Amino acid sequence: MKKFLSMIAAAVLAVACLAGCGDSSSKSDSSSSKAASSSVAESSSVVESSSAADSSAADSSEADSSSEADQPSSSEADSSSAADANIKATLSIDVSDILKNYDSLDKGLQSEEFVPQSGKILDETEFEVESGKTVYDLLVKVGEEKGIKIDAKKTEYGMYVEGINSVAAGSCGKTSGWMFSVNGKDPGVGADACKLNAGDKVEFFYICDYNAYYANQQAA
């Protein structure tokens, strides 16, 4: 009888063991599956984060590149700034008074080359100069560009324009010479002391008799 009971007890223990082992295996498999799933999820999250970061960096790079492309280069900015600093003024050179006193003009200058029959060595023409330049600077610039000879000398009153296109002071009488006006008025200073403003109209004109000219000015 005891032997029979022992056998029954052994059988019960075996069944319990099998059941326990089965549950443990199942739990182990479940745990392993969960771990694997967690690992995959984490891996996917890392990949997505990395991809998002790369995309963000690429967008930032494109934005920076676009911003740089929109910005003018340093040389373009300098060029633009230089252009803004320039002004425009007109200049004309008149010798019509010589035509009225042609017989008094030096014989060597009685030529279209020096005194055009139109009375103009230079018709009113617009030129561009740097801001802050003077009437004298404009005249020298025009002389260089147009091939017009300019003769000037330094005096205690500033630069005196003695000759233009080889026609000089005294070429058409003892009191003859060059004068200039700005916007139709005598500026009252030398050409190198008269600063230009945008839109100024400068005229150099030859007078055969200073005394007669000033007398007429006072009478007017």
Model description:
With 220 residues, the protein is of the alpha+beta class. It folds into two domains: 1-71; 86-219, Ferric Hydroxamate Uptake Protein, Chain A, domain 1 (Beta Complex). The chain contains five helices and seven strands, in the order ααβαβαβββββα. The chain has helices at 2-70, 74-84, 96-100, 135-146, 210-219; strands at residues 86-94, 120-130, 150-155, 158-164, 167-168, 177-182, 201-207. The strands form two sheets. Strands 2-1-7-6 form a four-stranded mixed sheet. A hairpin with a 2-residue loop joins strand 4 (158-164) and strand 5. The radius of gyration is 50 Å and the shape is globular. It starts with a helix and ends with a helix. 15% of the residues are buried.
Which features does this protein show?
5 helices; four-stranded mixed sheet; alpha+beta; disordered N terminus; globular; Ferric Hydroxamate Uptake Protein, Chain A, domain 1; three-stranded antiparallel sheet; 220 residues; 7 strands
**How many separate helices?**
5
Distance between the termini: 161 Å
What's the structural domain tally?
Answer: 2
Share of residues in strands: 15-25%
Q: State the CATH class of the largest domain.
A: Mainly Beta
Computed over alpha carbons, the radius of gyration is 50 Å
Order of H and E elements = HHEHEHEEEEEH
> What is the typical, i.e. mean, pLDDT?
76
Helix content: 40-55%
Strand order in space, largest sheet: 2-1-7-6
Topology, element by element:
Layout: H1 2-70, H2 74-84, E1 86-94, H3 96-100, E2 120-130, H4 135-146, E3 150-155, E4 158-164, E5 167-168, E6 177-182, E7 201-207, H5 210-219
Parallel strand pairs: 1-7
Antiparallel strand pairs: 1-2, 3-4, 4-5, 6-7
